[in-house]
UniProtKB/TrEMBL annotation:
The gene is FMO2. It comes from Chelonoidis abingdonii (Abingdon island giant tortoise). The keyword Protein biosynthesis does not apply. GO terms for cellular component: endoplasmic reticulum membrane. One of its GO terms (molecular function) is N,N-dimethylaniline monooxygenase activity. The chain crosses the membrane at residues 502-523. Broad spectrum monooxygenase that catalyzes the oxygenation of a wide variety of nitrogen- and sulfur-containing compounds including xenobiotics. Catalyzes the S-oxygenation of hypotaurine to produce taurine, an organic osmolyte involved in cell volume regulation as well as a variety of cytoprotective and developmental processes. It comes from the Eukaryota. This is Flavin-containing monooxygenase. Its cofactor is FAD.
Length: 524
Protein backbone atom coordinates (compact mmCIF):
# COMPACT_ATOMS: atom_id res chain seq x y z
CA UNK A 1 0.00 0.00 0.00
CA UNK A 2 1.29 3.46 -0.94
CA UNK A 3 2.44 5.65 1.89
CA UNK A 4 0.07 8.49 2.73
CA UNK A 5 1.53 12.00 2.83
CA UNK A 6 -0.13 15.15 4.22
CA UNK A 7 0.78 18.33 2.33
CA UNK A 8 -0.03 21.58 4.14
CA UNK A 9 -0.64 24.47 1.73
CA UNK A 10 -1.25 24.66 -2.03
CA UNK A 11 1.05 27.47 -3.09
CA UNK A 12 4.21 26.97 -5.13
CA UNK A 13 5.77 24.57 -2.59
CA UNK A 14 2.56 22.68 -1.96
CA UNK A 15 1.77 22.08 -5.62
CA UNK A 16 5.22 20.75 -6.45
CA UNK A 17 5.13 18.59 -3.30
CA UNK A 18 1.88 16.98 -4.46
CA UNK A 19 3.42 16.24 -7.86
CA UNK A 20 6.62 14.84 -6.36
CA UNK A 21 4.57 12.53 -4.16
CA UNK A 22 2.73 11.25 -7.22
CA UNK A 23 6.00 10.82 -9.12
CA UNK A 24 7.29 8.57 -6.34
CA UNK A 25 4.09 6.52 -6.06
CA UNK A 26 3.05 8.12 -2.76
CA UNK A 27 -0.52 9.09 -1.89
CA UNK A 28 -0.75 12.84 -1.14
CA UNK A 29 -3.59 14.72 0.52
CA UNK A 30 -3.17 18.50 0.47
CA UNK A 31 -4.95 20.72 2.98
CA UNK A 32 -5.63 24.30 1.86
CA UNK A 33 -7.40 26.69 4.21
CA UNK A 34 -8.63 28.98 1.41
CA UNK A 35 -10.83 28.18 -1.58
CA UNK A 36 -8.17 28.06 -4.32
CA UNK A 37 -4.53 27.36 -5.11
CA UNK A 38 -1.73 29.90 -5.49
CA UNK A 39 -0.77 30.88 -1.96
CA UNK A 40 1.21 34.12 -2.03
CA UNK A 41 0.50 34.65 -5.72
CA UNK A 42 -3.28 34.81 -5.45
CA UNK A 43 -4.17 38.45 -4.93
CA UNK A 44 -7.18 39.24 -2.73
CA UNK A 45 -8.70 42.67 -2.11
CA UNK A 46 -8.74 42.05 1.64
CA UNK A 47 -6.14 40.51 3.93
CA UNK A 48 -7.10 37.02 5.04
CA UNK A 49 -5.93 35.50 8.31
CA UNK A 50 -3.41 32.72 7.88
CA UNK A 51 -2.68 33.59 4.23
CA UNK A 52 0.12 35.52 2.58
CA UNK A 53 -0.96 38.86 1.16
CA UNK A 54 0.36 40.86 -1.80
CA UNK A 55 -0.44 44.23 -3.34
CA UNK A 56 -2.14 44.48 -6.69
CA UNK A 57 0.91 45.58 -8.69
CA UNK A 58 3.34 42.81 -7.65
CA UNK A 59 5.60 41.39 -10.36
CA UNK A 60 8.10 38.56 -10.07
CA UNK A 61 11.74 39.42 -9.43
CA UNK A 62 12.93 36.21 -11.08
CA UNK A 63 12.47 35.61 -14.78
CA UNK A 64 10.20 32.96 -16.25
CA UNK A 65 13.01 30.65 -17.44
CA UNK A 66 14.46 30.54 -13.94
CA UNK A 67 11.15 30.47 -12.06
CA UNK A 68 9.35 27.62 -13.78
CA UNK A 69 9.12 24.03 -12.64
CA UNK A 70 11.77 21.80 -14.16
CA UNK A 71 9.49 19.70 -16.37
CA UNK A 72 6.93 22.37 -17.26
CA UNK A 73 8.33 25.44 -19.09
CA UNK A 74 6.26 28.59 -19.07
CA UNK A 75 4.47 29.43 -22.35
CA UNK A 76 6.91 31.15 -24.69
CA UNK A 77 4.62 34.16 -25.17
CA UNK A 78 4.66 34.93 -21.43
CA UNK A 79 6.77 38.02 -20.57
CA UNK A 80 10.06 37.41 -18.82
CA UNK A 81 8.86 38.94 -15.55
CA UNK A 82 5.28 38.17 -14.66
CA UNK A 83 2.50 40.10 -13.00
CA UNK A 84 1.01 38.12 -10.12
CA UNK A 85 -2.09 37.29 -12.20
CA UNK A 86 0.05 35.80 -14.96
CA UNK A 87 2.13 33.77 -12.51
CA UNK A 88 -1.05 32.45 -10.91
CA UNK A 89 -2.20 31.47 -14.40
CA UNK A 90 0.99 29.44 -14.78
CA UNK A 91 0.39 27.67 -11.46
CA UNK A 92 -3.11 26.76 -12.60
CA UNK A 93 -1.76 25.42 -15.89
CA UNK A 94 0.72 23.32 -13.89
CA UNK A 95 -2.00 21.98 -11.59
CA UNK A 96 -4.19 21.12 -14.56
CA UNK A 97 -1.39 19.49 -16.55
CA UNK A 98 -0.51 17.09 -13.73
CA UNK A 99 -4.05 16.71 -12.34
CA UNK A 100 -3.14 18.06 -8.90
CA UNK A 101 -6.51 19.55 -7.88
CA UNK A 102 -7.98 16.11 -7.21
CA UNK A 103 -5.61 15.77 -4.26
CA UNK A 104 -6.47 19.09 -2.56
CA UNK A 105 -9.06 19.62 0.17
CA UNK A 106 -10.01 23.29 0.08
CA UNK A 107 -11.37 25.33 3.00
CA UNK A 108 -9.65 22.91 5.34
CA UNK A 109 -7.43 24.18 8.16
CA UNK A 110 -4.76 22.09 9.83
CA UNK A 111 -5.29 22.33 13.60
CA UNK A 112 -2.52 20.09 14.85
CA UNK A 113 0.16 17.66 13.69
CA UNK A 114 1.47 15.36 16.39
CA UNK A 115 3.42 12.13 16.56
CA UNK A 116 1.66 8.81 16.86
CA UNK A 117 2.44 6.91 20.05
CA UNK A 118 4.51 4.41 18.07
CA UNK A 119 6.32 7.16 16.11
CA UNK A 120 9.78 5.81 16.97
CA UNK A 121 9.00 2.69 14.96
CA UNK A 122 6.40 3.84 12.39
CA UNK A 123 7.25 7.52 11.92
CA UNK A 124 3.54 8.24 11.54
CA UNK A 125 1.66 11.44 12.35
CA UNK A 126 -1.84 12.27 13.50
CA UNK A 127 -3.14 15.26 11.53
CA UNK A 128 -6.22 17.04 12.87
CA UNK A 129 -8.05 19.25 10.38
CA UNK A 130 -11.17 21.40 10.49
CA UNK A 131 -13.66 22.08 7.71
CA UNK A 132 -17.17 23.56 7.98
CA UNK A 133 -16.83 23.56 11.75
CA UNK A 134 -16.12 19.84 11.94
CA UNK A 135 -12.81 18.32 12.98
CA UNK A 136 -11.30 15.17 11.54
CA UNK A 137 -8.27 13.15 12.65
CA UNK A 138 -6.23 11.17 10.11
CA UNK A 139 -3.02 9.15 10.35
CA UNK A 140 -0.34 9.88 7.74
CA UNK A 141 3.01 8.25 7.05
CA UNK A 142 4.70 11.60 6.35
CA UNK A 143 4.01 15.34 6.40
CA UNK A 144 5.21 18.14 4.11
CA UNK A 145 4.86 21.66 5.54
CA UNK A 146 4.49 24.14 2.66
CA UNK A 147 3.38 27.39 4.30
CA UNK A 148 6.12 29.79 3.26
CA UNK A 149 7.25 32.68 5.45
CA UNK A 150 5.10 35.67 4.43
CA UNK A 151 2.11 35.21 6.73
CA UNK A 152 2.88 36.74 10.12
CA UNK A 153 3.73 40.44 9.79
CA UNK A 154 6.50 41.81 12.00
CA UNK A 155 6.38 45.37 13.35
CA UNK A 156 9.16 46.14 15.87
CA UNK A 157 7.18 48.81 17.73
CA UNK A 158 9.69 48.79 20.60
CA UNK A 159 12.28 50.22 18.20
CA UNK A 160 10.10 53.23 17.37
CA UNK A 161 9.32 55.24 20.53
CA UNK A 162 6.23 57.39 20.29
CA UNK A 163 4.45 55.30 17.67
CA UNK A 164 1.64 54.70 20.17
CA UNK A 165 1.05 58.49 20.31
CA UNK A 166 1.08 58.95 16.55
CA UNK A 167 -2.32 60.28 15.46
CA UNK A 168 -1.97 59.26 11.85
CA UNK A 169 -2.43 55.80 10.40
CA UNK A 170 0.20 53.09 10.61
CA UNK A 171 0.17 49.48 9.42
CA UNK A 172 2.33 46.70 7.99
CA UNK A 173 3.00 46.45 4.25
CA UNK A 174 1.06 43.18 4.29
CA UNK A 175 -2.10 45.29 4.51
CA UNK A 176 -1.19 47.53 1.57
CA UNK A 177 -3.13 46.77 -1.61
CA UNK A 178 -3.08 49.80 -3.95
CA UNK A 179 -2.38 53.58 -4.02
CA UNK A 180 -6.08 54.33 -3.78
CA UNK A 181 -6.86 56.56 -0.81
CA UNK A 182 -3.37 58.05 -0.46
CA UNK A 183 -3.96 61.13 -2.60
CA UNK A 184 -2.40 64.26 -1.11
CA UNK A 185 -0.95 62.47 1.91
CA UNK A 186 2.56 62.44 3.35
CA UNK A 187 3.77 58.86 3.71
CA UNK A 188 6.79 57.38 5.50
CA UNK A 189 7.73 53.85 4.42
CA UNK A 190 10.01 52.13 6.92
CA UNK A 191 12.25 49.46 5.41
CA UNK A 192 14.46 48.99 2.39
CA UNK A 193 13.35 45.71 0.87
CA UNK A 194 11.46 44.94 -2.29
CA UNK A 195 8.05 45.69 -0.77
CA UNK A 196 9.18 49.03 0.67
CA UNK A 197 10.64 50.13 -2.65
CA UNK A 198 7.64 48.98 -4.69
CA UNK A 199 5.19 50.72 -2.40
CA UNK A 200 7.18 53.96 -2.27
CA UNK A 201 7.52 54.08 -6.06
CA UNK A 202 3.81 53.40 -6.53
CA UNK A 203 2.61 55.85 -3.90
CA UNK A 204 4.76 58.76 -5.06
CA UNK A 205 2.55 59.10 -8.13
CA UNK A 206 -0.49 60.00 -6.01
CA UNK A 207 0.72 60.97 -2.53
CA UNK A 208 1.91 64.46 -1.63
CA UNK A 209 5.31 63.31 -0.36
CA UNK A 210 6.91 59.89 0.12
CA UNK A 211 9.90 59.06 2.31
CA UNK A 212 11.82 55.80 2.58
CA UNK A 213 13.36 55.40 6.00
CA UNK A 214 16.17 52.85 6.08
CA UNK A 215 18.57 51.74 8.78
CA UNK A 216 21.22 50.12 6.61
CA UNK A 217 20.49 50.88 2.96
CA UNK A 218 20.58 48.30 0.19
CA UNK A 219 22.00 47.59 -3.21
CA UNK A 220 19.38 48.22 -5.87
CA UNK A 221 19.42 46.20 -9.07
CA UNK A 222 17.44 46.43 -12.27
CA UNK A 223 15.66 43.41 -13.67
CA UNK A 224 17.34 44.38 -16.96
CA UNK A 225 20.94 43.15 -16.99
CA UNK A 226 23.77 42.87 -19.53
CA UNK A 227 22.63 43.21 -23.16
CA UNK A 228 19.06 43.59 -21.95
CA UNK A 229 18.70 40.03 -20.69
CA UNK A 230 16.88 39.26 -17.43
CA UNK A 231 19.30 39.69 -14.55
CA UNK A 232 19.16 36.13 -13.26
CA UNK A 233 19.82 34.52 -16.65
CA UNK A 234 23.20 36.31 -16.69
CA UNK A 235 24.06 36.29 -12.98
CA UNK A 236 23.18 32.65 -12.29
CA UNK A 237 25.44 30.68 -14.60
CA UNK A 238 27.82 27.93 -13.57
CA UNK A 239 30.71 29.75 -15.20
CA UNK A 240 29.96 32.98 -13.32
CA UNK A 241 29.59 31.00 -10.13
CA UNK A 242 33.04 29.45 -10.66
CA UNK A 243 34.62 32.86 -11.22
CA UNK A 244 33.00 34.17 -8.03
CA UNK A 245 34.32 31.19 -6.10
CA UNK A 246 37.95 31.49 -7.21
CA UNK A 247 38.44 35.27 -7.19
CA UNK A 248 40.39 36.60 -4.19
CA UNK A 249 38.07 38.18 -1.64
CA UNK A 250 39.34 41.79 -2.03
CA UNK A 251 39.05 41.59 -5.82
CA UNK A 252 35.59 40.02 -5.59
CA UNK A 253 34.37 42.87 -3.40
CA UNK A 254 35.73 45.41 -5.85
CA UNK A 255 34.08 43.69 -8.82
CA UNK A 256 30.75 43.48 -7.04
CA UNK A 257 30.77 47.09 -5.92
CA UNK A 258 31.66 48.30 -9.40
CA UNK A 259 28.84 46.23 -10.86
CA UNK A 260 26.33 47.45 -8.31
CA UNK A 261 27.28 51.07 -9.00
CA UNK A 262 27.37 50.69 -12.77
CA UNK A 263 23.71 51.71 -13.06
CA UNK A 264 23.97 54.58 -10.55
CA UNK A 265 26.20 55.57 -7.66
CA UNK A 266 24.42 54.27 -4.56
CA UNK A 267 26.29 56.63 -2.24
CA UNK A 268 24.97 59.67 -4.10
CA UNK A 269 21.43 58.37 -3.66
CA UNK A 270 21.75 57.58 0.05
CA UNK A 271 21.28 53.87 -0.61
CA UNK A 272 24.72 52.33 -0.21
CA UNK A 273 24.64 49.62 2.50
CA UNK A 274 25.85 50.86 5.86
CA UNK A 275 28.66 48.31 5.92
CA UNK A 276 29.79 48.48 2.32
CA UNK A 277 32.64 46.09 3.05
CA UNK A 278 30.08 43.41 3.80
CA UNK A 279 29.15 43.72 0.13
CA UNK A 280 28.94 40.03 -0.71
CA UNK A 281 27.00 39.30 2.47
CA UNK A 282 24.50 42.06 1.74
CA UNK A 283 24.15 40.95 -1.88
CA UNK A 284 23.50 37.33 -0.96
CA UNK A 285 20.81 38.54 1.48
CA UNK A 286 18.91 39.67 -1.63
CA UNK A 287 19.28 43.14 -3.08
CA UNK A 288 16.29 45.25 -4.00
CA UNK A 289 14.97 44.80 -7.53
CA UNK A 290 13.32 47.99 -8.69
CA UNK A 291 13.64 49.55 -12.12
CA UNK A 292 12.00 52.86 -11.12
CA UNK A 293 13.38 53.78 -7.69
CA UNK A 294 16.53 55.64 -8.83
CA UNK A 295 14.47 57.69 -11.28
CA UNK A 296 11.92 58.59 -8.58
CA UNK A 297 14.70 59.66 -6.24
CA UNK A 298 16.32 61.69 -9.03
CA UNK A 299 13.01 63.46 -9.65
CA UNK A 300 12.46 64.12 -5.95
CA UNK A 301 9.30 62.03 -5.84
CA UNK A 302 10.86 59.68 -3.26
CA UNK A 303 13.22 60.93 -0.55
CA UNK A 304 15.59 58.54 1.23
CA UNK A 305 16.03 59.18 4.94
CA UNK A 306 17.84 57.41 7.80
CA UNK A 307 15.84 55.31 10.23
CA UNK A 308 13.14 57.00 12.32
CA UNK A 309 14.40 57.69 15.84
CA UNK A 310 11.00 58.51 17.28
CA UNK A 311 7.50 59.63 16.44
CA UNK A 312 5.44 62.47 17.83
CA UNK A 313 1.70 62.89 17.40
CA UNK A 314 2.19 64.27 13.90
CA UNK A 315 5.85 63.98 12.99
CA UNK A 316 8.69 61.55 12.32
CA UNK A 317 12.09 62.46 13.77
CA UNK A 318 14.95 60.76 11.96
CA UNK A 319 18.28 59.54 13.29
CA UNK A 320 20.17 62.47 11.73
CA UNK A 321 18.03 64.95 13.67
CA UNK A 322 15.86 66.05 10.75
CA UNK A 323 12.10 66.00 11.17
CA UNK A 324 9.18 65.61 8.82
CA UNK A 325 5.97 67.11 10.18
CA UNK A 326 2.36 66.48 9.24
CA UNK A 327 2.92 62.82 8.46
CA UNK A 328 -0.35 61.10 7.58
CA UNK A 329 0.63 57.47 7.09
CA UNK A 330 3.46 55.19 8.24
CA UNK A 331 3.89 51.86 6.45
CA UNK A 332 6.13 49.29 8.15
CA UNK A 333 7.77 47.14 5.47
CA UNK A 334 9.76 45.42 8.19
CA UNK A 335 9.50 41.82 7.15
CA UNK A 336 7.83 38.77 8.60
CA UNK A 337 8.13 36.29 11.41
CA UNK A 338 7.19 32.67 11.03
CA UNK A 339 5.98 29.86 13.23
CA UNK A 340 4.38 26.43 13.11
CA UNK A 341 1.37 26.77 15.42
CA UNK A 342 0.13 23.25 14.67
CA UNK A 343 3.44 21.61 15.66
CA UNK A 344 4.92 21.05 19.09
CA UNK A 345 8.17 22.88 19.82
CA UNK A 346 9.87 19.54 20.34
CA UNK A 347 9.43 18.94 16.60
CA UNK A 348 10.48 22.35 15.28
CA UNK A 349 11.62 25.16 17.55
CA UNK A 350 11.67 28.72 16.20
CA UNK A 351 13.88 31.19 18.08
CA UNK A 352 14.52 34.79 16.99
CA UNK A 353 12.97 33.99 13.63
CA UNK A 354 15.49 31.23 13.04
CA UNK A 355 15.06 27.49 12.85
CA UNK A 356 17.52 24.59 12.62
CA UNK A 357 16.78 22.27 9.70
CA UNK A 358 19.04 19.72 8.04
CA UNK A 359 19.73 21.13 4.57
CA UNK A 360 16.86 23.55 5.23
CA UNK A 361 14.36 20.68 5.02
CA UNK A 362 14.38 18.10 7.83
CA UNK A 363 14.08 18.76 11.59
CA UNK A 364 17.28 17.25 12.97
CA UNK A 365 15.89 15.76 16.20
CA UNK A 366 13.25 13.40 14.79
CA UNK A 367 13.75 9.67 15.26
CA UNK A 368 12.23 9.14 11.80
CA UNK A 369 12.68 11.63 8.92
CA UNK A 370 9.00 11.73 8.02
CA UNK A 371 8.37 15.48 8.27
CA UNK A 372 9.83 17.95 5.77
CA UNK A 373 9.59 21.72 5.54
CA UNK A 374 9.43 22.83 1.91
CA UNK A 375 10.11 26.37 0.69
CA UNK A 376 11.23 27.95 3.97
CA UNK A 377 14.21 29.58 2.28
CA UNK A 378 15.20 32.91 0.81
CA UNK A 379 17.70 32.37 -2.00
CA UNK A 380 19.22 35.03 -4.23
CA UNK A 381 17.15 33.66 -7.03
CA UNK A 382 13.78 31.98 -7.60
CA UNK A 383 12.31 29.86 -4.85
CA UNK A 384 10.45 27.55 -7.25
CA UNK A 385 13.34 25.27 -8.38
CA UNK A 386 14.65 25.18 -4.81
CA UNK A 387 11.30 24.09 -3.40
CA UNK A 388 10.86 21.54 -6.17
CA UNK A 389 14.24 19.91 -5.52
CA UNK A 390 13.55 19.93 -1.79
CA UNK A 391 10.29 18.08 -2.45
CA UNK A 392 11.95 15.61 -4.86
CA UNK A 393 14.56 14.77 -2.25
CA UNK A 394 12.09 14.59 0.66
CA UNK A 395 9.67 12.27 -1.13
CA UNK A 396 12.50 9.90 -2.03
CA UNK A 397 13.53 9.85 1.63
CA UNK A 398 9.91 9.10 2.59
CA UNK A 399 9.79 6.30 0.05
CA UNK A 400 13.06 4.84 1.32
CA UNK A 401 15.02 5.13 -1.91
CA UNK A 402 17.43 7.70 -0.49
CA UNK A 403 19.56 7.53 2.62
CA UNK A 404 17.79 9.42 5.43
CA UNK A 405 19.47 12.33 7.22
CA UNK A 406 21.88 11.24 9.96
CA UNK A 407 20.33 10.92 13.41
CA UNK A 408 23.31 12.41 15.27
CA UNK A 409 23.82 15.99 14.15
CA UNK A 410 25.66 18.90 15.66
CA UNK A 411 22.81 21.41 15.91
CA UNK A 412 25.24 24.30 16.09
CA UNK A 413 26.56 23.39 12.64
CA UNK A 414 23.14 23.61 10.98
CA UNK A 415 22.12 26.70 9.06
CA UNK A 416 19.45 28.63 10.93
CA UNK A 417 18.82 31.52 8.54
CA UNK A 418 16.61 31.38 5.46
CA UNK A 419 19.32 32.58 3.04
CA UNK A 420 20.89 30.10 0.66
CA UNK A 421 23.45 30.35 -2.13
CA UNK A 422 21.36 29.57 -5.20
CA UNK A 423 23.43 27.27 -7.44
CA UNK A 424 25.35 25.53 -4.65
CA UNK A 425 22.13 24.76 -2.82
CA UNK A 426 20.41 23.49 -5.95
CA UNK A 427 23.32 21.13 -6.63
CA UNK A 428 23.34 19.96 -3.02
CA UNK A 429 19.63 19.13 -3.18
CA UNK A 430 20.02 17.53 -6.61
CA UNK A 431 22.57 15.11 -5.14
CA UNK A 432 19.81 13.92 -2.84
CA UNK A 433 17.55 13.08 -5.77
CA UNK A 434 20.28 11.89 -8.18
CA UNK A 435 19.49 14.78 -10.51
CA UNK A 436 22.68 16.84 -10.49
CA UNK A 437 24.07 17.34 -14.01
CA UNK A 438 27.63 16.07 -14.55
CA UNK A 439 29.34 18.53 -16.85
CA UNK A 440 32.54 16.63 -17.70
CA UNK A 441 30.91 13.32 -18.81
CA UNK A 442 28.26 15.34 -20.63
CA UNK A 443 30.99 17.32 -22.42
CA UNK A 444 32.25 14.11 -24.01
CA UNK A 445 28.77 12.86 -24.85
CA UNK A 446 26.91 16.05 -25.83
CA UNK A 447 29.32 19.04 -25.99
CA UNK A 448 26.72 21.55 -27.20
CA UNK A 449 24.44 20.78 -24.28
CA UNK A 450 27.35 20.76 -21.81
CA UNK A 451 28.55 24.20 -22.94
CA UNK A 452 25.03 25.60 -22.79
CA UNK A 453 24.58 24.28 -19.26
CA UNK A 454 27.92 25.67 -18.14
CA UNK A 455 27.80 29.10 -19.76
CA UNK A 456 24.06 29.60 -20.00
CA UNK A 457 21.45 30.22 -17.29
CA UNK A 458 21.36 27.64 -14.51
CA UNK A 459 17.72 26.95 -15.28
CA UNK A 460 15.60 24.25 -13.59
CA UNK A 461 15.64 22.03 -16.69
CA UNK A 462 19.24 21.06 -15.91
CA UNK A 463 17.93 18.94 -13.05
CA UNK A 464 15.74 16.79 -15.30
CA UNK A 465 18.48 15.45 -17.55
CA UNK A 466 19.28 12.41 -15.47
CA UNK A 467 18.20 10.32 -12.51
CA UNK A 468 14.69 9.53 -11.28
CA UNK A 469 12.20 11.97 -12.74
CA UNK A 470 14.23 12.40 -15.92
CA UNK A 471 12.26 14.42 -18.48
CA UNK A 472 12.77 13.75 -22.19
CA UNK A 473 12.10 17.40 -23.03
CA UNK A 474 14.84 18.77 -20.77
CA UNK A 475 17.56 18.94 -23.43
CA UNK A 476 15.39 20.82 -25.88
CA UNK A 477 14.13 23.17 -23.16
CA UNK A 478 17.73 24.10 -22.30
CA UNK A 479 18.84 24.63 -25.89
CA UNK A 480 15.79 26.78 -26.75
CA UNK A 481 15.60 28.90 -23.61
CA UNK A 482 17.33 31.89 -25.24
CA UNK A 483 14.64 31.93 -27.95
CA UNK A 484 11.92 31.93 -25.28
CA UNK A 485 13.62 34.83 -23.48
CA UNK A 486 13.78 36.93 -26.64
CA UNK A 487 10.38 36.08 -28.12
CA UNK A 488 8.17 38.31 -25.92
CA UNK A 489 10.48 41.33 -26.33
CA UNK A 490 11.35 41.09 -30.03
CA UNK A 491 7.93 42.23 -31.19
CA UNK A 492 9.45 44.30 -33.99
CA UNK A 493 12.01 42.38 -35.99
CA UNK A 494 15.10 44.39 -37.01
CA UNK A 495 18.15 43.45 -39.01
CA UNK A 496 21.05 42.19 -36.90
CA UNK A 497 23.58 45.04 -37.00
CA UNK A 498 26.49 43.22 -35.38
CA UNK A 499 28.02 39.79 -35.34
CA UNK A 500 29.53 38.82 -32.02
CA UNK A 501 29.58 35.09 -32.63
CA UNK A 502 33.39 34.89 -32.85
CA UNK A 503 33.87 36.79 -29.60
CA UNK A 504 31.23 34.66 -27.91
CA UNK A 505 32.93 31.52 -29.19
CA UNK A 506 36.34 32.60 -27.90
CA UNK A 507 34.88 33.46 -24.49
CA UNK A 508 33.34 30.02 -24.29
CA UNK A 509 36.68 28.39 -25.16
CA UNK A 510 38.35 30.45 -22.42
CA UNK A 511 35.66 29.41 -19.97
CA UNK A 512 36.06 25.78 -20.94
CA UNK A 513 39.78 25.96 -20.22
CA UNK A 514 38.96 27.52 -16.86
CA UNK A 515 36.56 24.66 -16.17
CA UNK A 516 39.22 22.04 -16.92
CA UNK A 517 41.69 23.94 -14.73
CA UNK A 518 39.21 24.03 -11.86
CA UNK A 519 38.50 20.30 -12.20
CA UNK A 520 42.24 19.55 -12.28
CA UNK A 521 42.86 21.63 -9.15
CA UNK A 522 39.98 19.97 -7.31
CA UNK A 523 41.43 16.52 -8.07
CA UNK A 524 44.82 17.37 -6.63
Amino acid sequence: MAKRVAVIGSGVSGLTSIKCCLDEGLQPTCFERSDDIGGLWRFKEKVEEGRASIYQSVFTNSSKEMSCFSDFPMPEHFPNFLHNTRFLEYLKLYAKRFDLLNYIKFKTTVISVRKCQDFSTTGQWIVVTESDGKQESTVFDAVMVCMGHHIESFIPVQSFPGIEKFKGQYFHSREYKSPEGFQGKTVVVIGMGNSASDIAVELCQTAKRVFISTRGGSWVMSRVYDDGYPWDTVFHTRFSNLIRSILPWPLLKRVYEKKMNQWFNHENYGLVPQNRYALLTSLMKEPVFNDDLPSRILCGSVVVKPIVKEFTETAAIFEDGTMEDNVDVVIFATGYSFSFPFLEQSVIKVENNEVSLYKQVFPPTLEKPTLAVIGLIQPLGPIMPNAELQARWATRVFKGTRTPPPLSLDLASLSQTLQTDHIEYLDELAEGSDARPRILPLLLKDPILALTIYFGPCSPFQFRLTGPGKWDGARNAILTQKARIIKPTRTRVVRNSSNNSLISYLLKIFGLLALFAAIFVSLQ
